[in-house]
Design goal:
Elements: H1 2-36, H2 43-50, E1 52-57, E2 66-70, E3 73-77, H3 79-91, E4 94-99, H4 105-110, E5 116-121, H5 125-128, E6 131-133, E7 138-139, E8 142-147, E9 164-168, H6 172-180, E10 185-189, H7 192-200, E11 206-210, H8 211-219, E12 224-228, E13 239-245, H9 249-264, H10 267-285, H11 293-326, H12 330-344, H13 348-362, H14 368-393, H15 397-405, H16 410-440, H17 452-463, H18 467-496
Parallel strand pairs: 1-4, 1-5, 9-10, 9-11
Antiparallel strand pairs: 2-3, 5-13, 6-13, 7-13, 8-11, 8-12
Helix pairs in contact: 1-12, 3-9, 3-10, 11-12, 11-14, 11-17, 12-14, 13-14, 14-16, 15-16, 16-18, 17-18
């Protein structure tokens, strides 16, 4: 009971420490909002001054935005990409693309990780409360994609009563299923290609999406069929628009000018859509997995980089936390306990997103890769600390007493007697943590880090295949972890005979 009380007091102190930061930030935001009404908006000038337009999107939404392999390199293509290029050109700046999950885009916008979101986004009334939208630049209906063998079974939106219908998380389609498809259950996933995979494996009966995207998938997959859902959509919400941070009047005006010019020249129908169709046809002809080996290689490179760096820093911090927890100092002990329990009590995905979007809102130049490494390192440290602590406590007290009686200091005792024996005892557990970290690092794909899982999703969207890229990724993970297990077992055997 006494320890619980101490932990509660410590947690209150930690919250108190962070409260002033949030209050100052809130006050700054409030002041900024007040001042913005009194001064001229400078959002456009800021983009011009830094020389880049950072656009957030989810590149799994053909023909709006998707990836294609051009000269062995990944290239973002589609209607939205061409529009983004024109928008950046009109402002005289360089276009920078940040690819992430659709349901993370508005968070990235509000935390200023991106300047704009151009991702087939509908300007719903709910979204307009949080962000500003440009004029609508493209309009299409809502179609339902089903397996072709079910085309006689599902003919209208009312046919799905008692069935599960899929939609991307955070989209208008998700709420439309809930509101207008009576009796149907909604299944939300972050990536559209995963929804198509769920459709083909029978997990959902249909997937609701934009007309152009539905036709794109059907055109490239003979096993799929699409029809007009005829769901009722507010006129202001039927099209797609560019999203900006709240109060970005000058950026919105610049975007509206670009959109007006694009519409006047009929570039979307005459140029952007044909370009997208050409890339889609090329992808369908070259959609063998062998053609995308560079994607998997690049993803593996990032995965190993994240793992090695995270293991290094996680081990150092873990040793420090273990010693703090074993110390007689109440403050150090309590801090270590609070950190370890908090990290182990929260999901790694939440930690990754907090570091990138939360801390990244203060340090806006924080790259996604660095944020991912920091989050994975901090998470690993908590588990490593417990492994090391258990190893140290497993050493008989007589070992320590004998070392001290021979004149060794406490530091020397730990350095030459306790730690070497503890490492031998905990080596298998440390090895397991290393292997687990390789697999768990796939979480960083949610913030757009190009690890193995991220590259797998790119291959899925580029080839319109769901199962095969996942199977190859599974094999790669298995080969890496199996090889590492053998190496760790080798060194474990060496320790036993030392």
């Amino acid at each position: 009971m006494k320890k619980l009380k101490q932990l509660l007091i410590l947690f209150t102190l930690l919250v108190t420490l962070f409260m002033p930061v949030s209050q100052i930030k809130a006050a700054d935001n409030e002041g900024a909002a007040t001042n913005s009404s009194q001064t001229t908006d400078d959002s456009l000038q800021k983009v011009k001054d830094k020389g880049t337009l950072v656009v957030g999107l989810s590149a799994d939404y053909p023909p709006y935005e998707f990836t294609a392999k051009v000269d062995g390199k990944t290239k973002y293509v589609g209607i939205d990409i061409d529009l983004a290029k024109q928008f950046a050109k009109d402002m005289g700046v360089k276009l920078v693309i940040k690819n992430m999950n659709f349901d993370s885009l508005l968070v990235a916008l509000e935390t200023h990780k991106v300047d704009a979101v151009i991702s087939g986004m509908n300007p719903t009334t709910e979204r307009q409360k949080s962000v500003d939208f440009s004029n609508i630049y493209y309009t299409g209906g809502k179609y339902i994609v089903i397996n072709k063998k079910d085309k006689t079974k599902y003919t209208t939106k009312d046919s799905f009563s008692g069935q599960t219908v899929g939609a991307q998380n955070g989209t208008l389609e998700y709420s439309l299923i809930q509101k207008q498809m009576d009796g149907a259950k909604v299944k939300g996933l972050a990536k559209l290609n995963n929804l198509i995979l769920a459709l083909q494996s029978g997990k959902v009966a249909g997937v609701l999406m934009e007309e152009a995207t539905a036709k794109a998938y059907v055109q490239n997959n003979s096993n799929l069929y699409a029809f007009n859902s005829k769901v009722k959509v507010n006129t202001n919400e039927t099209g797609t628009a560019i999203a900006f941070p709240k109060g970005s009047a000058s950026l919105v005006a610049a975007a509206n000018k670009t959109i007006a010019d694009v519409k006047k020249a009929d570039l979307i129908d005459q140029q952007y859509v044909p370009n997208a169709a050409q890339y889609m046809q090329t992808a369908s002809k070259q959609n063998t997995m062998l053609n995308y080996w560079t994607y998997f290689a690049k993803g593996l490179e990032y995965t190993l980089l994240i793992t090695v760096v995270a293991v290094f820093f996680g081990f150092i911090l873990g040793v420090l936390l273990a010693l703090m927890r074993l110390s007689n100092g109440k403050i150090l002990h309590s801090l270590a306990v609070a950190y370890i329990e908090f990290i182990r009590g929260t999901p790694l995905m939440v930690q990754v997103m907090f570091v990138y979007f939360g801390v990244g809102a203060i340090i806006q130049s924080l790259p996604a890769l660095v944020a991912g490494i920091i989050a994975v390192s901090l998470n690993s440290a908590a588990y490593v600390a417990e492994v090391i602590r258990s190893g140290i406590e497993s050493i008989a007290i007589g070992q320590t007493e004998a070392a001290r009686s021979l004149g060794l200091s406490q530091k020397q005792t730990y350095q030459y007697v306790v730690i070497p024996q503890a490492i031998k005892n905990i080596w298998p557990a440390l090895g397991n943590e290393f292997i687990t970290l390789i697999k768990e690092s796939s979480i960083v794909s949610v913030i757009g880090v190009g690890d193995l899982m991220y590259q797998t999703q790119l291959v899925q969207s580029a080839t319109y295949k769901g199962v095969m890229p996942l199977f190859i990724t599974m094999l790669i993970y298995f080969v890496v972890t199996f090889t590492l297990s053998k190496v760790l077992n080798y060194f474990e055997g060496k320790m036993k005979h030392a």
